[in-house]
Each structure stands twice: as structure tokens, then as C-alpha cells.
Amino acid sequence: MKIRIHETINDPGRIGGHSEDRFGWNDDSVFVIDGATGIAEHQVMTGHSSDAAWLAGLAADSFTQAGHETISQTVETLNSRARDLYFKEAGTDDLPRYAWPAAAFQMLRIEGETLVTYGLGDSRLFLISDDTGEVFETSALKQNRDREAESARAHLQRIGGFRGEKDIKNDPQTLAALRTGRSRHNTPDGNIFTLGLVPEAAGRIVREETGLTAPVHGLLCSDGFAALCDLYDAFTPQQLIRAAHDQGLVALIERLRTIERSEDPEGERFPRFKVSDDATCVAFSID
């Protein structure tokens, strides 16, 4: 089996801003990485657009260069290295957990004759069989979108919408709630595990066999791109794959931003924490 990359896109959520997402591939795998929006008081890793962008770049390099070790071994090594580099740059290991950089990832890997996906967090895989039309779609963090939307709805109702802001984390009460939630990541008290500074998170990677065989077409994308299907109901999973490969990713980004910035700029129809999130996608096939 051979991976063929058809198109990629990485569109920042803020016009003129920097995306914290990354993507990549090698002979055996293709992946997307979604850096978590920072909610710390200050940035630690200088020379990068954000701490999350630094982490996502480090992860992309690790996944691209990974040999035949297991994904859990790669992630454990990555998180250990990130932890050492981050605390060294910070000059302390006593920073609050909500300040630590984090990232989600989803990967599709060829293992013999089997297509296997791995992930942490809420990035997405959409895959369709060329022969049967059967669709496989997944995320390592299932059913999180509904919980997140309800939380965002409550905050937006309290503050009266975005009111021209790009996100709602500038509201002190919202920011406090986000920091409380982020502090539980990668702990026994939380249900979200990520790439970041906790090597033990490697033990929580979600592995699934897709049940599909080549030839297939697919998408790996951040939740910001998958919102077209998961939040805005503009496409079914099958339609999203077809549209990406037939119309191209630029057309889908344009549709995404129209919904967010023109049709629902206040989050009334589709509650969310940001008007627009970074949206990243890799369109590929395997034959």
C-alpha cells in the first residue's frame, strides 16, 4: 500500500494570524496535529508563534522521523523531550498546569495489510472505501463536541455573544473555567489526554483498526476543519470526503469561514469558544 497526498491546507483562525496546527506524513503514516490555544499569562518558548505551535512542530518532526517503534513509544519520547525543553526554557518546573502547551493528534498508519488509526484529543479521521463506499470516521475524544458546545453556549449567553471579539477567553469567568478544565488534562481526574509535557499520556492513546482496505480516500483534519461536519452540519462524513477531493480544500475553507464570520458571527446558531478556529486538513488516498 502507498500513501498519496492530494492536497493540504492550514488556515489560521484569525485573519493574518498564525496557525498552531501542523501535519505531515512518511511512507507508513499520515497525521494532523492540533495545537491547543494558550491560556497562560505569558509565552515560554521564544522564537515561535506560540508554545502550542512549538509543541506541534516538535511533534510533527517526531512523527515524520519515527521508525518502526510503536506510536506509544514515539509519543512517550516526544512528551519527555518536550517536558525537558519547556521547563529548561522556563527556568522552573513550577508553572501551573493550565499553562503547559498541549496538542491533539490523529494518525492513519499502514501496518502490514491493515489500516490503523491512533489519536489523542479531538482531531478527526474520515475514510471511505473506493470499492464499497463504506465510511469509517473517528476521533480519539468521542462525544466531546456536544459537551464543549453546551459549555460555550452558557458562556456566550452570559456575556451576550462575541461582541466583536475573536474569542471569549478574555472574559475573566470564562478564562477561569477554561483554566480549571485545562488543569485536569493528562491527570487521573480528567478525561482528556494530549501530546504535551506528560509522558504517561502515551498510555492513553486510542488505537482503532479501520476495517477498510485499500483503495481508500480520506481526510485527516483538526476539529476546526471538521466543524463543517461535526458542528455546522454542512456535510455528512461521506459528503465531506467527496467534497474535499472533488471541489478542493480551499472551497471548503471558504464555506467554513462564511458560516463562522458571516452567517453566525455571534455563535447564536453554533455555540463555540472562538468565532473561527485554526482549520487544517490533509486530503489523501491509499492504494
Automatic annotation (TrEMBL):
InterPro entries, per the entry: PPM-type-like_dom_sf
Top-level taxon: Bacteria
Name assigned to this protein: Protein phosphatase 2C-like protein
Originating species: Martelella mediterranea
